[in-house]
Design brief:
CATH architecture of the largest domain in chain A: 3-Layer(bba) Sandwich
Oligomer: heterodimer
Shape of chain B: globular
Distance between the termini of chain B: 15 Å
Number of helices of chain A: 18
CATH class of the largest domain in chain A: Alpha Beta
Largest sheet of chain A: 8 strands, mixed
Helix content of chain A: 25-40%
Radius of gyration of chain B: 13 Å
Strand content of chain A: 25-35%
Largest interface: A-B, 11 and 8 residues
Structural class of chain A: alpha/beta
Helix content of chain B: over 70%
Order of helices and strands of chain B: HHH
Number of strands of chain B: 0
Largest sheet of chain B: none
Number of domains of chain B: 1
Structural class of chain B: mainly alpha
C-alpha cells in the first residue's frame, strides 16, 4: 500500500552532507549543440541517452576506440537527484574495464579495497569468506572489489571522456520524443536554449528505471514486487569498524531483521537496515528515528554524521529483449535487480563494455551488423541470471511467514554446526562476470571472461592482458600458446595480413623460444590458466571486452571459422 | 532416483525416525524434519536426484 510513496517521495538532493563539510558535485556547462547553432537536424552514428554509470562507461569505451558519439543527459552533474539507492561496490570485472578505459588508478586511490565478508545471525558468526583466497579472483591485476560512491566513478569517466575526445557530452538535454523507422531514429531534445531534433543510426537507452523508451518502443517486461522495506543510512562516525562486509541475517539491534554494513570512500559507512514489511517510508527515514536506530547498533557514545538517508522498496524486473529496432537497452533500463551482491551497477558496466566494441566493429566495417544481435543474446542472459540470483537472496532475507521462515530457521541452526549449511545462507551472491552459454558469437569453450592477468613483454618488463587488448584496438586478439610448427607460423602470418580485424601473439611458457615477432611471456602460466580450456600448443580468441570467443588446437580452418563466428562474418 | 529398497535396516530407520519425534511439539517436530531434509539432501548431493525426489514427494 505504500509502494507509490516509496517511489515518489524524494528524500535527498544527491550526496550532500546534511552536516559537516559537504560534497560539491562537479557541474558541467551546457554548450549550444550544432543542431541549434546551424538550425538543422543532424545525423549521428551513436546517441547515448543517460549519463549514469552505464551510459558514461559506454561513452568512454567508444571514445577509447575513437568512435564518435553523442551523449544526452538531462542533468548538469553526476550523481542523482532524488534517488534512494546508488551503487557502492565495484567488482573485479568492472575494475578491469575501468583500467582499460584509464580511470582505474583514480578509483583505486579514492576507494576502499576489501575482500573479507562475514555473516552473522544473532550474536553468532555463521559464515565468512576471503575473496583473496579464491583462485577465480587471484589472477587479475585488479582487486576482488573496491567500494566507492558511484558519483566518483561517473565523475572520473566524464574527465576521461573529455581527455579522449570523440564523444560529445551534452548536459541539460532531455529527450522528450522518439520515433524510428528501419534506417534511423529521430529524437527531440529539450534544452535551456530551446528544443531541437537529431537523428541516430543507433540509440542506447541508459536513462535508468523510469525510462520513457520502454513505452516508446513497446518492449516487453517481466516484473516482481515484494513487501520488503529497507532504509539506508550513509554515515560518518568517530569509530572505525573493520574494512569488511558485515551482514546480519537477524540483527539483535534491529529487532532480528537484517542489517548490512559496508565502507566507502571518505570514511563513509553504508548501514542498510531491513524494516518491517510495508513500513512507512516517511517515518523510517525521519532523522530522529534513523539516529535512534544507529544508536542501538553503535551505542550512545559514538558521534554520528548522517550523510544521506534513503528508504527503498525493491523491485526486480527484466525486459524480454534488449534491442528494439535501432534502440539498445542497458543498465537499469534493461533490468532492475534487488540490490544484493552488487549486481546492479556492475551489470550495467558490463553491458556497456559488451556493446561498445560491437558498435565500434560494425561502424568500422570490421563486423557484420548481425554482431549487434549478440548483445541481446549475451546481456539478456546475464540480466536474467542476475535477476534470478538476486530474487533468491530476497526470498532468503524476507521469507514468507510459515514454512519458508521455518526452513530458514533450520538452515541457520545447521549452519552454526556444519559447513555445508553455510552455503545455503544467502545474504547476497557477489556479482561475477557472467558466462555466455547461448551466444551466437561464442564457441563451445568460449563465453567466459578472462582475468586481466600479468604478462611479460620481455624479461623484466611486465604488462597485463589489458595492454594487449588496448594494443589490439578493438580487434580480436588471437593468442597461440607455446611452440608452433612452421606451417602454423606461416598460416598465422597470413592471417595477420589477411585484412581480418585480428592481432596475433605467441604466448611463451617458461623456457620457450620466440618464433613470432609479436610474442609475450607467460612464465607462471597465468594467462594460459585464465584462458580456460586452451590445449597445449593451441589458440584462444579473446574479444575486446576480455571475453573468450573460443579455443582450439591447431592453427587451421577452425581458427578462421572462430574469427568469422566472433564477428558474424 | 532409487525406487527399490536401499535402506540397510528399513524397520530400524523408521523406528529411529519416530523415536526422534517423541515428546516434541509440532514446531519442534517441524524443525527436526527440516534439519533432517537438509542434512539428507547434502548426503545425496546430485541435483537431478534431488529434483526427482522433490517431484515424487509432491505427488
Amino acid at each position: 500500500m505504500n509502494t507509490a510513496a516509496f517511489q515518489n517521495v524524494q528524500f535527498t538532493n544527491g550526496y550532500e552532507f546534511t552536516q559537516g563539510t559537504g560534497y560539491t558535485l562537479p557541474e558541467y556547462a551546457f554548450v549550444t549543440p550544432p543542431e541549434l547553432v546551424q538550425n538543422k537536424t543532424l545525423r549521428h552514428a551513436v546517441v547515448i541517452v543517460g549519463g549514469g554509470i552505464s551510459g558514461l562507461t559506454l561513452a568512454c569505451a567508444l571514445a577509447n576506440l575513437g568512435i564518435k558519439a553523442v551523449l544526452l543527459d538531462e542533468d548538469n552533474t553526476v550523481g542523482v537527484k532524488g534517488a534512494s539507492s546508488r551503487g557502492i561496490c565495484y567488482t573485479q570485472k568492472s575494475l578491469e574495464i575501468f583500467q582499460k578505459l584509464g580511470v582505474f588508478d583514480r578509483i583505486a586511490k579514492k576507494g576502499i579495497q576489501w575482500s573479507v565478508g562475514r555473516t552473522f545471525a544473532g550474536d553468532d558468526e555463521v559464515y565468512n569468506f576471503d575473496l583473496k583466497q579464491q583462485s577465480n579472483f587471484s589472477l587479475s591485476e585488479q582487486p576482488a572489489f573496491i567500494n566507492i560512491q558511484q558519483f566518483y566513478i561517473e565523475g572520473y569517466l566524464v574527465e576521461r571522456i573529455q581527455e579522449l575526445g570523440s564523444v560529445d557530452l551534452r548536459w541539460q538535454s532531455r529527450v522528450t520524443a522518439f520515433k524510428q523507422n528501419k534506417d534511423f531514429a529521430t529524437l527531440s531534445v529539450e534544452t535551456p536554449e530551446g528544443t531541437y531534433q537529431l537523428q541516430a543510426d543507433h540509440v542506447i537507452d541508459a536513462t535508468g528505471s523510469h525510462t520513457p523508451f520502454h513505452a516508446w518502443t513497446g518492449v516487453g517486461m517481466e516484473s516482481k514486487k515484494g513487501d520488503d522495506r529497507w532504509c539506508i543510512a550513509d554515515v560518518r562516525f568517530d569509530t572505525h569498524p573493520p574494512t569488511e562486509r558485515h551482514t546480519w541475517i537477524e540483527a539483535p539491534f534491529n529487532e532480528n531483521r537484517a542489517v548490512w554494513q559496508h565502507l566507502m570512500a571518505d570514511d563513509v559507512w553504508r548501514i542498510d537496515y531491513q524494516m518491517e514489511p510495508n513500513a512507512d517510508a516517511a517515518y523510517i527515514s525521519r532523522e530522529d528515528v534513523v539516529r535512534e536506530r544507529l544508536e542501538r547498533q553503535f551505542g550512545k557514545k559514538v558521534k554520528v554524521d548522517i550523510v544521506w538517508v534513503g528508504p527503498y522498496a525493491y523491485k526486480s524486473q527484466c525486459l524480454t529483449a534488449l534491442r528494439m529496432g535501432r534502440v539498445f537497452f542497458m543498465g537499469d533500463t534493461a533490468k532492475i535487480v534487488n540490490p544484493f551482491g552488487a549486481r546492479g551497477g556492475n551489470t550495467g558496466v558490463a553491458d556497456a563494455d559488451n556493446l561498445a566494441w560491437k558498435l565500434a566493429a560494425v561502424l568500422r566495417g570490421h563486423a557484420d551488423e548481425a554482431l549487434l544481435e549478440s548483445y541481446n543474446d549475451e546481456r539478456l542472459e546475464a540480466a536474467q541470471e542476475n535477476v534470478k540470483v538476486t530474487r533468491r537472496t530476497a526470498r532468503f532475507l524476507r521469507p514468507a511467514d510459515g514454512v519458508e521462515r521455518a526452513f530458514r530457521k533450520a538452515t541457520i541452526s545447521l549452519a552454526k554446526q556444519f559447513p555445508f549449511a553455510r552455503s545455503l545462507i544467502n545474504t547476497g551472491r557477489m556479482a561475477v562476470a557472467n558466462t555466455y552459454r547461448g551466444s551466437r558469437v561464442c564457441g563451445e569453450t568460449g563465453g567466459t571472461s578472462v582475468q586481466n592477468v600479468k604478462i611479460q613483454w620481455r624479461p623484466g618488463k611486465t604488462g597485463a592482458l589489458n595492454d594487449l587488448l588496448q594494443w589490439a584496438d578493438g580487434r580480436l586478439l588471437i593468442l597461440v600458446f607455446g611452440e608452433q610448427s612452421k606451417a602454423s607460423l606461416k598460416r598465422l602470418q597470413e592471417l595477420s595480413v589477411s585484412g581480418l580485424p585480428v592481432r596475433c601473439v605467441q604466448v611463451l611458457a617458461k623456457g620457450g623460444s620466440a618464433q613470432a615477432r609479436e610474442h609475450i611471456w607467460d612464465k607462471q602460466g597465468h594467462l594460459k590458466s585464465a584462458c580456460a580450456a586452451v590445449p597445449a600448443g593451441g589458440w584462444a580468441v579473446i574479444r575486446p571486452d576480455g571475453y573468450l570467443s573460443d579455443t582450439g588446437q591447431g592453427v587451421n580452418g577452425e581458427l578462421i571459422a572462430a574469427v568469422a563466428t566472433s564477428l558474424c562474418l | 532416483m532409487k525406487t527399490d529398497l536401499n535402506l540397510q535396516d528399513a524397520d530400524g530407520f523408521y523406528e529411529q525416525l519416530l523415536n526422534a519425534h517423541e515428546g516434541l511439539s509440532a514446531d519442534q517436530s517441524e524443525q527436526l524434519n527440516m534439519r533432517l531434509i537438509l542434512l539428507l539432501a547434502n548426503q545425496v548431493g546430485d541435483a537431478s536426484i534431488l529434483r526427482d525426489c522433490i517431484e515424487s514427494a509432491k505427488n
